[in-house]
Amino acid sequence: MDKPPTLKNLSPLIPAGKDVEKAIAFYNKLGFTTTHTEGKPLKMAIVERDGIQIFLVQNDDRHLAEGTSFRIRVDGVEQLYEEFLAQGENIIHPNGKLETKPWGCKEFGVLDLAGVCITFYDVV
After folding, report:
1. What is the spatial distance between Cα 98 and Cα 95, in angstroms, rounded to a whole number?
2. What are the pLDDT digits (tens) for 32-66?
3. Cβ contact 108:99 at 8 Å
4. Which of 110, 106, 123 minimizes the C-alpha distance to 68?
5. Per-residue confidence at 24, pLDDT binned at 50, 70, 90?
6. This prediction's pTM
């Protein structure tokens, strides 16, 4: 009997703005490491942290970026929040402070340089 397929990971392609190098620098502040780049000037990059892989694609359509969001589940969301706060660079969105939501998640939000919203969360 064949084993049913299993979904393992999601690797989003997100708009990185006009300057992919600046986007890479921002994601490096979030603890991501650059594992691949393409183009001169850069047109695309892959950044990774733990099991998360994000494709940063050059695209300076601000409306597209601001309409893009994704969620990353984290073991130790409180510690990650403190890690980002310790950098003192206002990485946390002013309206995205760590809190428990009515839908049963403890979460906080970050806006990248292009305007993409990333929510880091864990289930409580």
Report:
1. 9
2. 999 999 999 999 999 999 999 999 999 989 999 99
3. yes
4. 110
5. very high
6. 0.92
Query: Which bin fits 19, alpha (ψ -120 to 50), beta or left (φ > 0)?
Result: beta
Q: Are 16 and 56 in contact (CB under 8 A)?
A: yes
Count of CB atoms situated within 10 Å of the CB of 111: 20
* Domains of the chain (ranges, CATH numbers): 13-123 (3.10.180.10)
Amino acid (one-letter) located at 101: K
Q: Is the dihedral of CA 62, 101, 124, 108 positive or negative?
A: positive
In the predicted model, is pLDDT for residue 6 greater than 90? Answer: no
Which residue in this structure is represented by tokens 């890479």? 24
- Closest by CA position to 47, among listed 6, 84, 16: 16
Is the pLDDT at 1 greater than 90? The verdict is no
Cα 8–13–19 angle (5° rounding)? 145
